[in-house]
Structures are given as C-alpha cells and as structure tokens.
Amino acid sequence: TANKRLLVLPGDGIGPEVMREVRRVIDWMDRRRHVSFALEEGMVGGAALEATGSPCPDQTVERALAADAVLFGSVGGPKWDSLPFDKRPELGILRLRKELGLFANLRPAVVLDPLVDASSLKPDVVRGLDLMIVRETTGGIYFGEPRGVETMPNGQRRGVDTEVYTEEEIARVARVAFDLARRRSNRLTSVEKANVMQSGRLWRAVVSEVGKNEFPDVELSHMYADNCAMQLANRPKQFDVILAGNLFGDVLSDLAAALTGSLGMLPSATLGAPDSSGRRHALYEPIHGSAPDIAGKGIANPCAQMLSLAMLLRWSFGMEEDAKMIETAVEKVLAGGLRTADIMGPGTARVGTSVMGDAVLREL
Amino acid sequence: TANKRLLVLPGDGIGPEVMREVRRVIDWMDRRRHVSFALEEGMVGGAALEATGSPCPDQTVERALAADAVLFGSVGGPKWDSLPFDKRPELGILRLRKELGLFANLRPAVVLDPLVDASSLKPDVVRGLDLMIVRETTGGIYFGEPRGVETMPNGQRRGVDTEVYTEEEIARVARVAFDLARRRSNRLTSVEKANVMQSGRLWRAVVSEVGKNEFPDVELSHMYADNCAMQLANRPKQFDVILAGNLFGDVLSDLAAALTGSLGMLPSATLGAPDSSGRRHALYEPIHGSAPDIAGKGIANPCAQMLSLAMLLRWSFGMEEDAKMIETAVEKVLAGGLRTADIMGPGTARVGTSVMGDAVLREL
Ligand SMILES: CC(C)[C@H](C(=O)O)[C@@H](O)C(=O)O
Ligand SMILES: CC(C)[C@H](C(=O)O)[C@@H](O)C(=O)O
In which pathway does it act (chains A, B) (predicted)? Predict the structure, then answer.
C-alpha cells in the first residue's frame, strides 16, 4: 500500500537531472522491493519563482507539511542572484526549514576508499574519514530579530542581524547530536565562540548540562569555531560527531565536505522534532548546490541525490536494509572504476549522469 | 635617537620564551643597524590578571596608546578557562583592539618552499601559497549591543549577540584591503553571507561601492563564507587578498593558516586609522596561541614572533629593508634544515627555541 508520502522537489540547475536518476531507483524499489511510495512532485527555488512568483509557494509548504518526507534537489543560479531577499531561490530552503521545524541538519563527511585521491588533502590525512556534523537550522542569526538595513540620522546605513538561542533550542539539537554520537563512536565535539559570544556561552553551558544529565556516557568536548576549522583542516579524523549552531555549522559543514574532495557524493538530512507518534518532518538533499555551470549537460554526479534517498529511507522510514543496498550499490560502482567528471582520477572511466544511474541500478 | 616607542607584551604560555628571541633581534638591530627603540615591557592576559586583577590593566592600555607600535605575544591557558567573561585573558587582546581602534587585521598565509611538506594538503595544492586575509576587528558580533544571557519570563535562559556594521566601518576596512590588493596581484575577494544576513547585504553593497568609486582597477569578487571555506580547502591558490568581517575573518584566517601546516611561522598585524600626520596605532602578534602544553619547555617556534617584528618594521616604521633582512634570515635557516618540533619533517634537524634564535641571528 502507498503509505509512504514522498514530496520530490527537484528545484534548479542540476537538481532535475540528478533527481531523474533517483526516480529510477524509486521505481526499482516499487517493482522489486514492493515498497510503494505515494510520490508527488512540487516546485521550489528559481523554478517556482518563474512559475508562481514565489521561491517557496504556499502550496509547496502545504504539501511538504502533509508528506512523510521531502526529497530536495538544489536551488539558485546566476539568473536570480540580484533579486531582493524575499525573491531569492535560497528562500525556498530557508522557509521549508522554518515552517517544517527542521532544526537538526545532519551532514556526513565521508571519504570512500576509491575516492581518497579526490581530496586536496594527503591520502593519510583523509583515508577512512567518517564524521557527522549536526547543525542547528531554525535558529541563530539566520532568523533572529531585529534584523535589517536602516539609515541612521547622520545618513549612514547600518546593517543589523541578531544571533539568538534559547535554552530549549540548544537542548533539542544537542540531544540529536548526543544520540547520534551514541550510535557511532560515542564522542561529541560542541563548537561555538564562548570566549566572545554570549549565545556561545549559553550554548556551551546547555550542551554541558544535557550531556551531564542525559548522556553521561558520551565523551563531550568543547571547541572554539576558529580552532575547529583549523583542526578539521589538519586532523579531520580526530572527530566523530560535531555539533554547531546555524552559522558556524554552515561554514564548518561545507569545510568538512570540501575536505573529502567529493562534494558530488555527499547527502544530508534535516530533521524536525518527533510528535507523540514518533513521526517527524524531514528533508533530504545533496550538499552540492545547483551547479548552474554544468546544468543541462548530463554530466552531473547523481550519487549525492541517490545517497540522500538512502538517508531518507533510513531516517524517515526505518528501512535500514534498503538504505544500505543503495549505499552499497553506489560504492560498488565506484570500486568498478566509473566516475562522473567531478570525481575523476587516473585509471578511472568518465561517464555522464545517466550512465552512472544505469550502473547503480545494475548493481541493485 | 630613540624615537621609536615600542611596547612589548609577552603575555602567557610560550609568549615570554619566543619574545626573548625577538628581543635578541632587536638588540642586534640596535647595535648593527643603529636603529634605536625606546622599548617598554608591559603586562597582558593571565599574567596581568594574576598581578593586577585585570587581563588588560589600564596602564597597559595607556602605554599602548602612547607607543608607536605594540609587539604582542599570546594570551590564555587552561588555568583561566573557567573565569567569567570580564576576567578572561582573551579580554587583553579584545580590549586593546577596541581602545586603540585596531580595525584591520592583516593575516598572511604563506607556504615557504622548505615547508611545503608540513601541510596536511597535497604539495601541489599549497606550493607557493601566498594570500592575505584582511579581517575587520573592532565591529560586528564581537562588540554589537544588545548582548547577554537573560532569563525569560518562562524561566528559560536566552543568549543574544548582535552583529552590526555601519557603512563607515565597512568602507574603511575595505580600503585597507583594496589598497593591499593593489600592491599585490590586484585581486580582492570579499566574503559574507549576503544571502542570509542583512549586515552581509550591506557589506557587499558598500564594498562594491568603494571598489567602483575608489579602486576601479582592482578586480573585485564576492563569495559566501561557506563557499570560501570550501574554496580555501580545495584551491587556496585562487586567492590573493580576502576581506571579511570580524567573525568570518576569525574562522577563515585560522583555516587559511592551518592549510599552510606551519602555524608557528605566521605573523599578523592589526592596524588602526592613520591620523593627519600618517601615524597609526598598530599591534603585531604571531597567530599561534599561547600553546600551554609546550610552554616553558624551550621547544616553541620563535619564527612567527620574529616575523611579527618584521611586519612591525614594515608597517609601522616603513623599514622595508630591515623587515626583509629578518624574513630572509628566517628563510635561510629553514633552507639550512633547522626545524622546531612543530614543523619537523624527514631529513631536517630538530632544535629548540633558543637554538633557532641563535641561527636566525647568525644569518643576520
Ligand atoms: C542557500 C543557503 C541559504 C544555505 C544556508 O546558508 O543555510 C546553504 O548554504 C546551506 O548550507 O544549506
Ligand atoms: C582570543 C580570541 C578572542 C581571538 C578572536 O576571536 O578574535 C582570537 O581567536 C584571534 O583570532 O585573535
């Protein structure tokens, strides 16, 4: 029965073409695994803006609220770069996070063995890297009020943003991170600038309290954001799970992704709070952007979008076995030597988006 | 004549021991180059806290205001980590920046040829790296009001910081960056999150205006902070000068430093606005911290502190020739194979702080 309501939002740039390959995986699951999804497709980003005048139409929000999970592509492109704030494609993702209450962004940074050489770091530094960044995504400076650009009495402009975190906001995302650490190597590094920022001071205090009261078995350490960036660049394997607020999490998770050298391989999940029946809103997206420079050429790497589906199966539907099947299929294709342009290396064969999709389906 | 008033603030941890080697260079200049400094030594950080109850005593601020340049060591250590905000050693540097109006932090990230292998990045990625980050240091979220941790009516705590930038603050640090770009490869990358932050939106607008009106010959580009972190990790050599606000500049400059793999080699300058006679306050410090784990062992690398003196001679006294002499002496010592523990590599000889100092003096 079609009890799994899935909203697919391809978005802009390479979004639609990588999503096409994922649809093939979903079809395959339908036929072979007898898992049936009630699948809807919606609009977001620049595509939605052109069609409806809004980068995140109300209809998309309503459908997302009604769905069990959202599979998101990517948004944005030079075409819309000079639009005012409330028209920008990025608003698509920001509004969805806020309206669905998606406060915990899970960003794995993993280096698969066949891709060690794709990294700009020395092989020894990144071989076997497997860390997870948990980033808060509905609070902090992204949404705090007051915010705006105003003209002062002397005629000068002044830009203001407010970073604000409540105890409750910090505690709930900390719980997600502690819980994840427990299922991994039991180590959590919490990141802020408590030496400079007041919200950072509260962040450190609350994370410590949650750890002490609810997760005394997890080894907790604290690190300043600047030091964390250094440590990530020099010894990334020291980390297991990293917890950070919205802004530091944005920068550090992109940094961690870049260290792997294979952005085109990395998925992410953004989760809301579970309700009394355990159901939670969730959105899954590759971390690569819309890559307008290669859009429409059929050369984009569909793996991150496929692995986002795997995360979706695992986190939203508890389908660990199916998630693993997809992950294993992708790994086997890489081990077999096929590569899209972004992860090419010596001795490998370059293929396009759909051939990569074919290969994953064959492995499945 | 002793017309160059220099305030030396060794601070905590390895600060005093690396400063000792620099004092030898200053003595040598006195004798050989007939440059005479009126040299005072002051207290800052944990050392000042122990002696006076304040991490940045008024006397230190007064002396810094009277000096032509400040040579700063480093502050902080585990001993003072749990103190309240207003007692923390870091306040030493924060207060000096604010009271002296040191708004432009210049942070070079340079990979010297003999140290290419010290980096965690592949040699090809970092060989010849030479970029400069200009970070704003008296504004933004470090000082904006309101700030604090308060208890809300419902009993929950709430932490608040305010990021605020005026047009004038952005323009003056932008001018420093543009001016530097002109003396280098004529390219400037300005970094913010204009897609999310209002202060970032103003930042981008003002930097564009300054560029268009005053530096039309400098090639200006804009980059989001998350993307900049990625690009630094993957292709750092694409950059010449990077301009960023206080918070992003903190994280990105430490990241850039880490990429070099030789933190113990990197100096920095923080400059105020020139007055009508062209005189400006300025503070010079190595970017490595107080490194409490190795303090007092005589193994710290004195090079960054020595190179900070070189920057001081160049920027505060226009003594380009003397600055170059020190830089060349340090490079020759490295080329000769001597290394402190932090930058050891195969085929090099490990020496302590004072032997490294001896070697530099011998080259001079
Ligand atoms: C597109 C942008 C608003 C967004 C963010 O800053 O959160 C992106 O960088 C991300 O990390 O998902
Ligand atoms: C010590 C700390 C307050 C300081 C900062 O955040 O500015 C340091 O990280 C730096 O970069 O000089």
Answer: Amino-acid biosynthesis; L-leucine biosynthesis; L-leucine from 3-methyl-2-oxobutanoate: step 3/4
pLDDT tens-digit readout, B191-233: 999 999 999 999 999 999 999 999 999 999 999 999 999 999 9
| Cβ–Cβ below 8 Å for A164 and B160 | yes
**Residues B165, B140 contacting (CB under 8 angstroms):** yes
Provide the whole-model pTM.
0.96
Q: Is the CB of A230 under 6 A from ligand 2?
A: no
In a domain, A154, yes or no: no
The catalytic residue positions of A are 142, 193, 226, 250, 254
On whether the CB atoms of residues A89 and A49 are closer than 8 A, the answer is: yes
User: Measured between beta carbons, which residues in chain B are less than 8 angstroms from residue A231?
Assistant: 258
**What DSSP element (H or E) covers A91?**
helix A90-100
**Single residue among A238, A260, A282 that ends a domain in this structure:** A260
Tell me what pLDDT residue A302 has: 96
Structure tokens at A102: 């998606």
B167, A158: Cβ pair inside 8 Å? yes
CATH of the domain at A74: 3.40.718.10
CB neighbour burial string for A310-324, b if at least 16 within 10 angstroms, e if fewer: bbbbbbbbebeebbe
| Stretch A193-206: mean pLDDT | 96
How many beta-carbon contacts under 8 Å exist across A and B?
189
Residue having the nearest C-alpha atom to atom 5 of ligand 1: A250
Range(s) of the domain holding residue A135: 120-140+166-260
Residues of B known to be catalytic: 142, 193, 226, 250, 254
